[in-house]
Amino acid sequence: MQDLPIALSCGEPSGIGPEIAVKARAALGASLPFFWIGDPAHLPPGTGLQEIAHPAEALAVPAGRLPVLAHAFPEAAPPGAPRPANARAVIEVIARAVTLVTRGEAAALCTAPIHKKALKGGAGFAFPGHTEYLADLAGGARVVMMLACPDLRVVPTTIHIPLSEVPARLTPALLEETIRITHAGLIRDFGLAAPRLAVAGLNPHAGEGGAMGDEETRVIAPVLERLRAEGIAVAGPLPADTMFHPAARARYDAAICMYHDQALIPIKTLDFAGGVNVTLGLPFIRTSPDHGTAFDIAGQGVADPASLIAALKLAREMTCARQADRA
């Protein structure tokens, strides 16, 4: 798979996705082959592109041109203003990209940002986001969301739910599944033979012995004890406020957090532009830039492609790690 290009789905074409795809190609050239799936008419004016009929053809496209696997959309995509009529095609592009990867025609999938409200309103999109839709396309695979940058990997156990619902949703089964999928993903997709995991507590000071909540002793600690008995290197539950300084980060390969912001605040603080969203547990590799559609700056030529470039590079690294794991 190392000699296959990465598939990049267009995402919401009225956002910054088309613009950063062009910028990523300009920055990477032919050193990291990828092809963009979308409507060529949605790319910025003056884009140097070359349409391809098959993913393998992307390998021969000159560095100064963006390889494009054309997918027709019904309408134009004015920057900052998603068209409901285009929602169905956005979804189709994701499914098409997954088909190409699962058939072995592309090395991995990188997804440009979608706008969930636009997809729901325009096509009745029934999923909370990319991750859940990809899991469904993969036959209902159990997955977890990881955010990664060179200095930190974090996994939120609960994701897009109100903070008030976290204690009820944080079950031993969910936590154990999250840790197991993360542990397996670090071995298979990151080449770590014996991953070290750190698990945060839910409450301040990890509950302080029950003085500030009992989820640590009632829910979290028993799960960690079972996993340690199996030989998994997992520390915790740890106070979240002391887990992310440099010395603490050196002691683990990934941090398992209890809720969305507990995980995302530290990584966005460390590397706002270079964070990558990774879906662990899928039968194929999927990465994505860790930002949204940015309608407010779409079409202005100012969008930063750093996160997309990092996502493409990480997809390639994960491809190599998965190949080595199979060897």
Radius of gyration: 20 Å
Query: What spatial form do the alpha-carbon principal axes imply?
Result: globular
The second-level CATH architecture of the largest domain is: 3-Layer(aba) Sandwich
CATH hierarchy class name of the largest domain: Alpha Beta
Domains (count): 2
Tally the beta strands: 12
Q: List the helices and strands in order.
A: EHEEEHEHHEEHHEHEHEHEEH
Structural class: alpha/beta
Helical amount among residues, as a percent range?
Answer: 25-40%
Mean pLDDT: 95
Strand-residue proportion: 15-25%
The CATH topology of the largest domain, please? Isopropylmalate Dehydrogenase
Main beta-sheet strand count, sense and barrel state:
12 strands, mixed
Provide the low-confidence segments as ranges: none
CATH superfamily of the largest domain: Isopropylmalate Dehydrogenase
Biggest sheet strand order reads 3-4-2-1-5-12-11-6-7-10-8-9
Number of helical segments with 4 or more residues: 10
Q: How widely separated are the two ends?
A: 12 Å
